[in-house]
Amino acid sequence: QRLKAAVHYTVGCLCQEVEEDKDAQFTKQSIAAISEITFRQCEIFAKDLEMFARHAKRTTVTTDDVKLLARRSNSLLKYITQKSEELASSNMEQKEKKKKKSSTAKGERTPGEQEAAVTENEDSNM
Amino acid sequence: GRRSSSLQDKSLCVTGQKQMNSHKSWSLSPEEFEIWDRLYRIKEGDGIKEPILPRAQFETLENLEETPEPEEGAARELSLCEWSLWQNQPLPTALVAHSDLCHLFISAMEMMELMRHQQGDCSYERELQPHLRMEDVNIPGNKRNIPGNKR
């Protein structure tokens, strides 16, 4: 329930942005419906991602698995691929910065954590 | 016994060969083409329009799919929402069961049907409101409102 509430809140905020953007109105019911669909869609995404990773004999979900979720639409795939490249390059920059500093501070995330973060990000974009 | 099975093998072979002969290429044989042309092909005089599937389009993304625009009104676009009132329960299946995604769709349609007549106040919202923890949510647009949230 707590998760659903968070999704519902976030969907509400996104819908508000769209409302301002497009000068249209969402009923509360339509926001609720989008939330519920988003919530359930996450279960399906999660299962698919797990299967895609397993299909490639991995236990960690990577951005390649996420791209497979978007394979049906060229537009979506292009968008996701761009985002993933942006993320990858910003991750590289951050790593590099950290390397320069890291003689004093050890704050690097493990690759697994990074990938999980990427997945979350892109899920919420869809 | 052994004999009948070898007979079966032979007959399988024969029919297999026959089919192989007429299916040498990927396309229809002249006989098959004749059948298709006579029974199934949609022609101008038939009074029905060519069925086409709607194209996926993203409102919020640049569209890459090129849409081979058919003449307006020459084709009948198959509708996926015309019968939405029929979609809040699983329809019969033959060999392929409904998928998870399909069940998601059905339950979403059912949920919308139940909320159709609600005015203003929303039961879904009422139910979830008490469970909301602000630490769970992080909206890019609201970032400026949350102090100490740097990226």
TrEMBL record, chain A:
Gene3D superfamilies in the record: Histone, subunit A
GO MF annotations, alphabetized: chromatin binding; DNA binding; protein heterodimerization activity
GO biological process: cell division; DNA repair; replication fork processing; resolution of meiotic recombination intermediates
A UniProt-annotated Pfam family: CENP-S
Location of the region described as Disordered in the Swiss-Prot/TrEMBL record: 87-126
Organism superkingdom: Eukaryota
Keyword DNA-binding applies: yes
Record keywords, A-Z: Cell cycle, Cell division, Centromere, Chromosome, DNA damage, DNA repair, DNA-binding, Kinetochore, Mitosis, Nucleus
Keyword Nucleotide-binding: no
One cellular-component annotation, GO: kinetochore
Cellular compartments annotated: Chromosome, Centromere, Kinetochore; Nucleus
InterPro entries, per database record: CENP-S/Mhf1, Histone-fold
UniProt similarity note: Belongs to the TAF9 family. CENP-S/MHF1 subfamily.
UniProt-recorded name of the protein: Centromere protein S
